Amino acid sequence: MSIEDQVAEAGAPEQPKMDERGLVELDDRVPKQAKIENGRATIEAQDMTTRKINAEIKWLVYEEGVKEITVLNPRARHSLGVAILARCKLRFEGSLGYFGCGLIDGPEVEITGRVGWSVAENMMSGTVVVEGNAGSLAGAAMRGGDLVVKGDLGARTGIDQKGGTIITLGNAASMTGFMMQRGRQIICGDVGPGLGDSMYDGTIYVGGEVAALGIDCVPGEWTDADTELIERKFEIYGLGNPPELKKFVCGKKLYNYDSLEPSERKLVL
Amino acid sequence: MCGIAGIIYRNGSGDEHQVGRDMTAMLQAMKHRGPDSTGYALYRGDEDTFVMHVKLSEPNDRDPDIDQRMARQRAEVEQRIKAAGAKVHDISEQERTMTVHFDFDGDLKAVADAAERVRHTEVLSLGRHLEIIKDLGDAETVSEEYGLGKFTGTHAIGHARMATESDVDIANAHPYWAYPFPDVAVVHNGQLTNFHDWRRRLTRAGHRFQSECDSEIIAVYLAEKMSQGKSLQEAMTDSLTELDGVFTYICVTEDELGVAKDMLGAKPLVLYEDDDVVALASEEIAIRQVLDREIETHDPYEGEVKVWSR
After folding, report:
1. Total-model pTM
2. pLDDT exceeds cutoff 60 at A7
3. Contact between residue A130 and residue A123 where contact means Cβ atoms under 8 Å apart
4. pLDDT of residue A267
5. What mean pLDDT is predicted for residues A45-52?
6. Could you tell me which chain B residue has the CA closest to the CA of A132?
7. Same domain, A147 and A168
8. Which of A1, B32, B117, B227 is the most exposed, having the fewest neighbouring CB atoms within 10 Å of its CB?
9. pLDDT interval class at A28 (50, 70, 90)
10. Which one of 3.60.20.10, 3.30.420.40, 3.30.390.50, 3.40.50.720 gives the CATH number of domain B3-46+131-309?
11. CA distance A9 to chain B (A)
12. Cβ of B265 and A136 within 8 Å?
């Protein structure tokens, strides 16, 4: 009997295997324990490792064609629901740790608890709706899709954001929209110092007090397109009536670019 | 990167709460944030005697006669603190450290100084309540070696260290006791950039520093401020502008636990509080080890100082 067969026969070990450095050894066998009923699946994640939970979600989405998945007891673990590149509905009943639902392209995610740092980091498309608070760096480097946080946000929300929309009904901390390049942020509450610091482009709407604007972030002119966008987004997510918002954009004072190639610049100089 | 954690039970006596076991579970869950060394500052309930933890050697000590030297150190520490006026009740020995229970009337600095006059010796902690335990390895290793599973008390802080600024050894491991102020300890996640300035200032004020670690000054800085009559809250608020760098640190005294976050909010902290317990850690996953249910948590904001007392 080969070693693989022996391992398969012995069943999954209760504790993850550790190598001599004390690191968890790669165990990418899919548990396949989810209950599937009428195209809906439920994963009981209480005693599963992060790797197993993610492997189970991918197995359900890609191989079983399940379009609605509920994960029970995520217990604030890190890196859950990452890198799912297909349309599906994903519901976490509980809280996620750091890097939750990062690198996704397509899923509609609902999180009933709270999320840690870097939720929906690098999201390409899809939606992530969080009922509780979020940590810092929410929607970092996001390229598309919507991130809705019904509680408060931490610092550096949407740092390096390149697209999509971030909405929060609560407050946001310092350096919100730092180095933002495109996309929109709708902050219904107050924001900390350094709002939109060094932003290149994009729009930030703030409902409450702004502690201090960052470098090169200036108030923008309100247009009908802004009203239309905000009303539409609030309606989609059932967020009630939007508060009165102020608009902030890039002042473009730091734009020191030219369109010359390095070889051309030499000729000009 | 480092992981820090704190827990304070606001009610009940020190005998009811297994803070040693709680802190071990919290730090073990954050092992990935720092596997170099683990440290605890644990506060036992009401006691009549003082307890002092003394380090005798480092794990990387190359002395060929280390056993004889440590035996000499143990005898000499006992003799010197007795000469300083301490009534010693009990001495227990661990592999590289010793623990002394004693009675004393007067300035505790005299006892700490007497012990530290022995070469290669460092007083890790001293107080009626505070016990600092730190060693190399993860939380479970340290907890097992020092029997922390049975430790009952009122509050505790802990640190899982990933060394960035100084060596991997016990002297540079957190938590730091605010020598010579009894029962004050600090854990810190971050880097201080004006640490040399503060170290010079505090050295001129008569303080001594055992390590090269930037975090050591925070404990002494706060204790110095408190000895001038400021409250923990006021001292920590001052630190936000007077200490430069990125930091989240937790400071504990006999009956208070406080946390401060720098003006950039660069280092993480997750907070849970209710009427009975306050738990805080670099990652929520650590808090879940002691409160394994859905809980409402949040991240404190930049420049925030919070203090809880019992």
Report:
1. 0.90
2. no
3. no
4. 77
5. 93
6. B296
7. no
8. A1
9. confident
10. 3.60.20.10
11. 31
12. yes
Residue partners of B237: CB distance under 8 A and separation at least 6: B260, B305
CB contacts, 8 Å: B266 with chain A: 155
Please judge whether A113 and B294 are an interchain contact, meaning their C-beta atoms are less than 8 angstroms apart. Answer: yes
What is the structure's pLDDT at B226?
92
Beta carbons of A147 and A139 less than 8 angstroms apart: yes
Same domain membership, residue A83 and residue A61:
yes
Interface contact flag, A136 B264, Cβ < 8 Å: no
Taking an 8 Å cut-off on Cβ atoms, the answer to whether B297 and A192 are in contact is: no
- Mean pLDDT score of chain A, rounded to an integer? 92
Residue of B nearest to A151 (CA): B298
Residue B295 Cα, gap to closest chain A Cα (Å): 8
What pLDDT shows up at residue A257? Answer: 75
Contacts of A113 in chain B (CB under 8 A): 294
What is the rounded CA–CA span in Å between residue A160 and residue B274? Answer: 36
Question: Residue B260: which of B281, B287, B233, B284 has the closest Cα?
Answer: B233
Domain assignment present for A173: yes
Question: Which of chain B's residues have a Cβ under 8 Å away from the Cβ of A132?
Answer: 296
Q: What is the residue range of A171's domain?
A: 164-250
Residue with tokens 């902690």: B125
Average pLDDT over residues B155-180: 91
- What would the 3-class secondary structure string for B70-118 be? HHHHHHHHHHHHHHCCCEEEEEEECCCEEEEEEECCCCHHHHHHHHHCC
Contacts of B140 in chain A (CB under 8 A): none
Percentage of chain A surpassing pLDDT 90? 83
Distances in Å between the Cα of A238 and the Cα atoms of A126, A129, A188 are 17, 11, 14
Just give the CATH number of B48-127.
3.30.70.1510
Q: Cis ω on the peptide bond leading into residue A219 (within 30° of 0)?
A: no
Average pLDDT of the segment spanning B95-107: 92
Catalytic residue positions of B, numbered? 2
Q: Is residue A10 domain-resident?
A: no
Q: State the total domains in chain A.
A: 2
Closest C-alpha to A138, from A101, A183, A85, A188: A101
**List of residues 6+ apart from A118 with CB closer than 8 A:** A98, A99, A100, A102, A135, A136, A137, A138, A140
Predicted pLDDT of residue A269 = 67
**Given an 8 Å threshold on Cβ–Cβ distance, is A75 in contact with B288?**
yes
